[in-house]
């Protein structure tokens, strides 16, 4: 029900009217993704191709309350921040089901992209370019006081041309001001900062204290993965990787990385969160590294253009050669241009 100030409120769910989706105009197509808490479908909304995230309501009252709170948080975060490297939020509704609608990105997840490349590695410029996209998205979130907490390749989506990465899935995102109320049960262990789970003996519901530097740690693991195109902590289960990182300070080997890139990775996954750089610093480090590996533009000798009617002195070394290529009418030779090669439209086929 709409309130006088233009906001819709149902329990914890508050949304500006401009973001409210009309479910009657929403058409759901084939499933394109599934996580622990929701399923994502391709679809249409007002003739626009979109991604539709449907969150099941749960069975028990406790489960229902938990899912509604998570949904409300994600919608609040998405509606607050806009950035070219964050998936574009289109709208949401809570009834008849909890739905979040975003732009449809056709390039697939970064996880799928990397798997398709294996055993080959990404070109260094491509890897660093993707890392910059991710870092810029995180800088935007942190500037709004939001911690993502679940930064990993499954939550990074490529655009159709597979040249740009956007961060998606804010289901675990929280405002930094309320971190003291968070539980340790969050994220995916392999990419998670040790301080999120290092006290394994936490009783159910016991709280942990941490800050936005947990995302810098996860970024380091993702950057290592972009550079090597291997699963971090290969040969370990998620829990084994978590134990090794938290209690033995084990990290993937950075020995094969170029020195400057290794410095970025190792500084971001330092054991002491306060010693890790923030994302503004990470962006500057990545840009410096990128400039160091990008060859300078070739400097071409200046071209000398002479008028067709120019008269060169007889002793000029170029005069005789010019006379050879000119005919009696003094026309310049004709340059033949090669024919330029002539340059996917995604069609939504199924609505049900």
Fold topology:
Layout lengths: L6 E4 L2 E4 L9 E9 L4 E7 L2 E8 L5 H20 L8 E5 L4 E6 L6 H8 L6 H20 L2 E2 L8 E3 L6 E3 L6 E2 L37 H16 L9 H10 L11 H10 L10 H15 L25 H7 L27
Antiparallel strand pairs: 1-2, 3-4, 4-5, 5-7, 6-7, 8-11, 9-10
Q: Any descriptors?
A:
single chain, about 350 residues, alpha+beta, Phosphorylase Kinase, domain 1, Transferase(Phosphotransferase), domain 1, about 30% helix
Would you write up a description of this structure?
The chain is of the alpha+beta class. The chain folds into 2 domains: 7-103, Phosphorylase Kinase, domain 1 (2-Layer Sandwich), CATH 3.30.200; 110-293, Transferase(Phosphotransferase), domain 1 (Orthogonal Bundle), CATH 1.10.510.10. The protein has helices at 61-80, 110-117, 124-143, 213-228, 238-247, 259-268, 279-293, 319-325; strands spanning 7-10, 13-16, 26-34, 39-45, 48-55, 89-93, 98-103, 146-147, 156-158, 165-167, 174-175. Strands 3-4-5-7-6 form a 5-stranded antiparallel β-sheet, covered by helices on one side. Strand 3 and strand 4 (39-45) form a beta hairpin. The radius of gyration is 27 Å and the shape is globular. The relative contact order is 0.10. Residues 1-12, 178-186 and 316-352 have low confidence and may be disordered. One of its GO terms (cellular component) is cytoplasm. Keywords: ATP-binding, Kinase, Nucleotide-binding, Serine/threonine-protein kinase, Transferase. It comes from Dillenia turbinata.
